[in-house]
């Protein structure tokens, strides 16, 4: 059987009116605003309006440590939502909004795929309702007000060299990483070395995703620290009188977007913070509404369980007060084979052919990664469900190895063929998730607020990553001490490391042991409410390849989009 | 009587459902898509769907040479539309989308004012339906693809020093005017001197405003010239394979936005190209639809009749093939007094009190500007209607001076108090416009396509500005010759000079004589389809003031926007 392309499937889907989708969620029409035919904004008043309905089960989708191709978490999230509806449960999903930069770069879109995607692809992968653009605008207004403040006499006494607030754009543009601004004449500002990040890396994006109300958003924006005075006092967006205008720019963007999957499952698509320097999860407000809209809300966390899920548990749930009922761990045969260390997978290049040959031994050889990630979920008191994202090239013997490992670890497990068969193909997974949610669980964060920042980092490194310990660079240790004494010690930590290994080194596959985590730098996201630790090179502005996807994207004679994938 | 603030008027307006507004325009519901409660996108299919309806009268609103405060063209446009409906005609208006940068800078919003504004103010002044952001994204994708091309081996042989394509953001940020990009390591691009303009100054914005269809948009984007090879051959967006993706990013943005005025008059709000380096007019597609939606379409052209209206006649009408039936020339008492040369008006500062004293002599002393602008309209074969935008501080004797001058020049004239009284206050103006439209007119462009570029500039300078001639800097003359030989000689010209004088010198008030226009530089907007000439310093990226409007903009406890004006 040849599968039609994602774009063809998207295009041939007969979508339901969004008012029907909202009605299925129990959201009154007065609380939705259509944005075009295929997306609607849901007012945050829906949280109060739906408060009498029972809270649904809260299911987070995470993964083993992925290959550069990803394990297919988004397709599983979509497929599981459809699968739950297929077996007669009412389910909705919550995913992140794709970033436009990568859509025109190497990656293509990020709306799921096959018969497990959010539609239409053109809407979700392009502007959607403009939230990304609002983040860009709010972020850059603050940047302009900082430089304007310096230019107009600097009455707050900001040390220009301490300014950490850069600018952002939702485009893959390596030439903007390191720039000098303020050149020209005296009327053209103050020369300063700075740069642009991609919009998803903006602290404003993390703030939007972690806010629980408009008032909370306003306060978090005010708490953003942009730099310091010569005396070392933090300078905030509130000090610059920028937070109010930023909040006005973001007012509509705080309302989650409602879309639908190819099978009409309600899909909340909202926010897309980075998965390394930020927490990599979709918004809290979408989950708050989604949990009252369905019996099961399936929400996705970025990267592997050591990354997105750890932040889901310790940053997002801490901010929302919500507790998860189950965690789905997505694994693929090729992903586990890659963890054997015997293959090299490069994004944009064909898979090594030998990876596709039947080889249950290689799956077993990479299985420690799966075991560790199962333990990571369980460490937080949550029931793990291993979802094998099945490919046509898989072999039954390879699936059996994964099922046996999961069973040995006491985890639920199911093979899922949602990509080729939609919700029907995820029915077994849906049953496993229902069973996991019915188990008694007791959600437990990894560390208390009171633990010191360094202790929090040590705990994540040892208990989740499997490190022997942490080596803080002197500058990082000094910063952490300053944050403690500056009153930021109760914040959770967000460790920015590669997502391609449990360790900081992408070459270390499986579940590496006998290593220590080197923390090069510590930075503060005071508005978002976490301290982040940089381990290795973190790229916050992607570049384009020699043949970017943009070159193949166009309109056809009928004005339809072609070349999106 | 104390007027409520613009924001209070906007907030207290009971808006009609946009479906009612579309219905009033005869636009089928299937051709509109709501974007939130207060704006809808109208499909370009409406042009064909409405083609059986008679074409309405086409009225352009322009002005005398304005003071830095503006003459109130937008309020007249809104008020006239309302006034025509008040006297029983069916009218719609078309205006530009305000830029978000200035909204947070000194200017505040640009939705009209008083009882002649487009509502709600928060919608039109902020993101609206995201068109500005789409322009930003499309423009910057091309910029990224240029630098990526240079980084990946430069197979087209682009001379990096010839690249004129900068980047854009919709923010007032002087520090971005002159920057160096591509610093850092070898992986971070190629160091280059460049900068950012405000989004309204993007050629993409001009292209969007001048396109007549999606296919036309696609072709214009492909024709954008970003720089030259070492051999002097033009390098286009098509050469870089960027135009298709840019068109996809702009696909929805090409559809005009439908809103309404405080009195429920349909308002098409679409595109906002700069009024100096670009043509400063709202979109052609909005006019194409608007003209079939009403008996009168009132459309606004930026700055004075020597600027926006001249480009309306010679750039916009040339591209659309439409012919105007009347031109409204907005004048104020204070504006004409300022043209006496006896007052100095500075934006953001209080008016000189002596300007408000009764002084018909000063009005007469400045009247040559009005006479020249009446002649400028008539030079194009269009009936002029002088609209006196009345202020509470005006005196009858002063209004009489203007009326007498208009009558002596054979122009229609009316005093309009739309700001305080809405459509009722513009009834007299509406009657004058109806009369002007009924006169036989014969629209005549200023110059034929076949005239040389230098002749076109000479013609505008002599016949419209009243210059004795033009002095081309050697570099400009060389460029114009190159454009002629490169096949761009048939394009119209867009002269970028100050809008505060008929001449290139903002200090020369009234209708200056005995001067020559110095053309410093010539540049090509091949996609938009004009050559522009730079006379003096043209700022394409504004800065913020010491106390930007952003500092006063916030949300209140009810989550409503405060501080917008």
Automatic annotation (TrEMBL), chains A, B:
Pathway: One-carbon metabolism; tetrahydrofolate interconversion. It catalyses: (6S)-5,6,7,8-tetrahydrofolate + formate + ATP = (6R)-10-formyltetrahydrofolate + ADP + phosphate. GO terms for molecular function: ATP binding; formate-tetrahydrofolate ligase activity. ATP binds at residues 67-74. Its EC number is 6.3.4.3. SUPFAM superfamilies: P-loop containing nucleoside triphosphate hydrolases (SSF52540). InterPro entries: Formate_THF_ligase, Formate_THF_ligase_CS, P-loop_NTPase. HAMAP family: FTHFS. Belongs to the formate--tetrahydrofolate ligase family. This is Formate--tetrahydrofolate ligase. It comes from Stackebrandtia nassauensis (strain DSM 44728 / CIP 108903 / NRRL B-16338 / NBRC 102104 / LLR-40K-21). The gene is fhs.
